[in-house]
Amino acid sequence: MKKIYAVTGLAVMASLALPAAWSADPGAGQKLFQTTCIACHGQNGVGIAPMYPNLAGQKMEYIVAQLKAFRDGQRVNPIMSPMAKGLSDTDIANLAEYLSTLKPQ
Questions:
Q1: Domain of 30: which CATH number?
Q2: Residue 54: partners with Cβ closer than 8 Å, 6 or more residues away
Q3: Does some domain include residue 64?
Q4: Is the residue at 16 inside a domain?
């Protein structure tokens, strides 16, 4: 009985850690992308120059991790760090959801 409770408890704890990803709004992500990211990462998530990475079709978890790293100072870039600084966890989840739906080139 304790083993079942422990496994159930872990499952509940894991599900509590991911609600932003499950409730992400790709429409809100698209709007944010078009006002913030499009100048460098292109209209369809394809960078306008080699120095700007293609984001279209990237895994949601990867985008979330990278944006949080820029925002929280774990990854530093003179362009991306200030851009990510004002993003909430919800903004990041929405952007990641939208970008993950785009077709990679």
A1: 1.10.760.10
A2: 41, 42, 45, 46, 47, 104, 105
A3: yes
A4: no
Burial of 102 (0-12, 13-18, 19+ CB in 10 A): buried
The confidence band for 22, taking pLDDT boundaries of 50, 70 and 90, is: low
Query: Could you give the CA distance from residue 98 to residue 33 in angstroms, rounded to a whole number?
Result: 8
pTM: 0.78
Burial of 90 (0-12, 13-18, 19+ CB in 10 A): middle
Owning domain of residue 67: 21-101
For 21, the token pair is 């990803």
Question: How many domains, in total, are found in the chain?
Answer: 1
Higher pLDDT, 66 or 3: 66
Interval 34-83: pLDDT, tens: 999 999 999 999 999 999 999 999 999 999 999 999 999 999 999 999 99
58 lies in a domain? yes
